[in-house]
């Protein structure tokens, strides 16, 4: 807080352009009130007005019944009483140049190592959310170098195809971490689903599926630590999404990649932030380090999704080749909810719970099209907690292939 005041006294409202990392902040003086949010949007910030007075909160539920209309401060924006809402420029990071994939892979590994080390040195971090996929396994591998007594946490559904549980156990054994896992059952998902949607502040079915697994993971980790590292961000900046394989040329790849990055705060990052907050658990994602992001933006698309087989995150795999078990380093990208087994079970629960009355919904009151019977049920749970129309308007529905 003292640093923010010092920067503001020197640079005025433009001090936010000099902040490194993720943040959602308010700074108040005798003559000014400033709200700002980091460029990725990892930390949420909402605001609204009542009787001409500005109200703001880190969760929209805090403004429930207080403001007639609730708005979300967009990522990379600052609000001041004098100038209103405007975008701000993020810090420019100086990152090394490279002439070959080998050199790019080496630099990427070094930057990620530095990002992990910096977050561990910030204190309180003693664990990693480990799915057994490439990204979280790399974070765990790097963290173990600096923290020998590292803890790792994994959750999965009580079905035979919860691959995350198997792969995470293999990775934890390989690293020698203090590993914890938890198997959640269908009945438990039914019990926590209303709370998941309440904390998530969304009824989007894809977001709900992943949030269920995030909820159990956060609950497990919070029993053993106050702060964890995680692998979020790699898919957005290093070509992890299968949709990117559909790009017909480099321009389309870059546009789709930017769309995925721009919407991450309403998808993977939203469910991660809200479920961690539900259990008072802090999290730090090394892949969203400013220098890592700046370097990833320089990597050619052809090195992210590579060759005729269209190998996703190829440059990241190359950066850590030989350092991870082959079945981890070669594991094909799975949606988080699929790997953790929560998608299938949560969908079935929603389908069964969708009543005849519910099924008459084809769209929400604010004309958002509902995708399935399961989502109709999630929407009903959402409306029970957030009846005002302005809240459902904040739920983002987006298809990366149609840009909706």
UniProtKB/TrEMBL annotation:
Entry GO CC: cytosol
Domain Glutamine amidotransferase type-2: start-end pairs: 1-84
Molecular function GO labels: asparagine synthase (glutamine-hydrolyzing) activity; ATP binding
Biological processes annotated in GO: asparagine biosynthetic process
CDD domains in alphabetical order: Asn_synthase_B_C (cd01991)
InterPro entries: Asn_synthase, Asn_Synthetase, GATase_2_dom, Ntn_hydrolases_N, Rossmann-like_a/b/a_fold
Keywords: ATP-binding, Ligase, Nucleotide-binding
PANTHER family, alphabetized: ASPARAGINE SYNTHETASE (PTHR11772), ASPARAGINE SYNTHETASE [GLUTAMINE-HYDROLYZING] (PTHR11772:SF2)
Protein name according to UniProt: Glutamine amidotransferase type-2 domain-containing protein
């Amino acid at each position: 807080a003292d640093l923010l005041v010092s920067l503001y006294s020197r640079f005025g409202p433009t001090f936010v352009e000099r902040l490194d990392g993720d943040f959602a902040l308010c700074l108040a003086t005798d003559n000014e009130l400033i709200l700002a949010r980091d460029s990725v949007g990892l930390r949420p910030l909402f605001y609204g007005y009542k009787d001409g007075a500005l109200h703001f909160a880190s969760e929209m539920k805090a403004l429930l019944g207080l403001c007639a209309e609730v708005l979300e401060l967009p990522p990379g924006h600052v609000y001041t009483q004098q100038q209103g809402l405007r975008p701000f420029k993020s810090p420019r990071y100086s990152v090394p140049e490279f002439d070959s994939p080998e050199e790019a892979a080496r630099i990427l590994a070094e930057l990620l190592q530095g990002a992990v080390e910096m977050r561990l040195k910030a204190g309180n971090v003693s664990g990693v959310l480990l799915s057994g996929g490439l990204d979280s396994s790399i974070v765990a591998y790097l963290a173990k170098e600096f923290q020998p007594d590292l803890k790792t946490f994994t959750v999965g559904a009580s079905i035979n195809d919860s691959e995350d549980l198997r792969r995470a156990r293999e990775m934890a054994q390989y690293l020698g971490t203090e590993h914890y896992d938890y198997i959640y059952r269908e009945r438990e998902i039914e019990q926590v689903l209303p709370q998941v949607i309440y904390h998530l502040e969304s009824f989007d079915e894809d977001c709900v599926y992943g949030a269920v697994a995030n909820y159990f993971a956060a609950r497990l980790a919070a029993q053993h630590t106050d702060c964890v590292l995680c692998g979020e961000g790699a898919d957005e900046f290093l070509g992890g999404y299968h949709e990117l394989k559909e790009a017909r040329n480099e321009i389309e790849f870059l546009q789709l990649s930017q769309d995925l990055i721009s919407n991450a705060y309403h998808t993977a990052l939203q469910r991660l932030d809200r479920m961690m907050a539900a259990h008072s658990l802090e999290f730090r994602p090394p892949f969203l380090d400013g220098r890592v992001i700046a370097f990833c933006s320089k990597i050619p698309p052809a090195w992210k999704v590579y060759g005729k087989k269209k190998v996703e995150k190829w440059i990241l795999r190359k950066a850590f080749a030989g350092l991870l078990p082959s079945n981890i380093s070669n594991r094909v990208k799975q949606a988080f909810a699929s790997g953790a087994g929560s998608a299938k079970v949560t969908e079935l629960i929603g389908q069964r719970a969708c009543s005849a009355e519910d099924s008459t919904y084809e769209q929400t009151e604010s004309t958002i099209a509902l995708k399935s019977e399961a989502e109709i049920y999630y929407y009903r749970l959402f409306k029970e907690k957030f009846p005002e129309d302005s809240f459902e308007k904040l739920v983002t529905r987006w298809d990366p292939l149609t840009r909706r």
